[in-house]
Amino acid sequence: MTVQENQAEELLHRFRQGDVRALARALTLVESGHPVGQELLKRLRGQARAKVVGITGSPGAGKSTLTDRLILEARKRGERVGVLAVDPSSPFTGGAILGDRIRMMRHHQDPGVYIRSLASRGALGGLAGATVAALALLEAFGFDRIFVETVGVGQSEVDIARVADTTLLVLTPAAGDAVQAFKAGVMEIADLFAVNKFDLPGGERIIQELKSALELAPPRPGGWHPPIYPTVAATGEGVEALFEGLEAHYQHLVAHGLLEAHRLERARFEVESVIQEWGRKRTQGAGDLVARVARGELSPEEAALALLDPKTHP
């Protein structure tokens, strides 16, 4: 048995014993792409099923505060909760810019809650494939519900719909918030809407705008009609009803046999993310090919084929 296999065996044993430090170590190995982490994933993937809720929305909508309140609701019902807060990555250092866990610090002594920040790694403004791998580890560790809070910019809204069982879009009465959601095409992927900071002026107006837009939206699988919940996360107002809505959507997926399709789409997204990251790294070391594209000597397609198969290098 190799050193890596020994390390994987030891970590796997501790992981299955419920050692939180082993979970943290496994997440670090997976996020960094370490072979031991990949070996753990193969052994642990698909062993459990958690209710995965994606939470997205524009910056400043109160996603972290709302997530904090939803954690409390889940704990009241005896659920073990995992949270992945996907932070934006600096395009220069690759490090995470924000630390949304700060807003959830009240849970740090609760053994039934585990919160982890992940960097988006510049995945075109969206989720990194490591997020899906981390999800698989949290599921295998036995969490009943996992919240994935996204950066809320760029591609992340569309990505989260491919990863989560239920997608919650958080909007505010701020001017133009609903209009931006319509432009971005997020209306088609959200399963539920929360109009947060509903105590601010304009709350009723944005609900009416959402209702009007949803009347024109295409039908959802199984005939689901996305509900809209007014919330004030700072005080907890409306959060219990929102949590019940999340549960109702999950039960809808179960009743209509839609969960398996969600899991397959999640795996497809993960494979695509690995290919995308691989291509990005290979392109960084292909200065000659890139220069030839810039000079018009090669098409981007020819350069990409050369990276995929060096034998085809023109």
TrEMBL record:
<dbReference type="Pfam" id="PF03308">
    <property type="entry name" value="MeaB"/>
</dbReference>
<comment type="similarity">
    <text>Belongs to the SIMIBI class G3E GTPase family. ArgK/MeaB subfamily.</text>
</comment>
<dbReference type="InterPro" id="IPR052040">
    <property type="entry name" value="GTPase/Isobutyryl-CoA_mutase"/>
</dbReference>
<keyword id="KW-0547">Nucleotide-binding</keyword>
<protein>
    <submittedName>
        <fullName>Methylmalonyl Co-A mutase-associated GTPase MeaB</fullName>
    </submittedName>
</protein>
<dbReference type="InterPro" id="IPR005129">
    <property type="entry name" value="GTPase_ArgK"/>
</dbReference>
<keyword id="KW-0143">Chaperone</keyword>
<keyword id="KW-0342">GTP-binding</keyword>
<dbReference type="InterPro" id="IPR027417">
    <property type="entry name" value="P-loop_NTPase"/>
</dbReference>
<keyword id="KW-0378">Hydrolase</keyword>
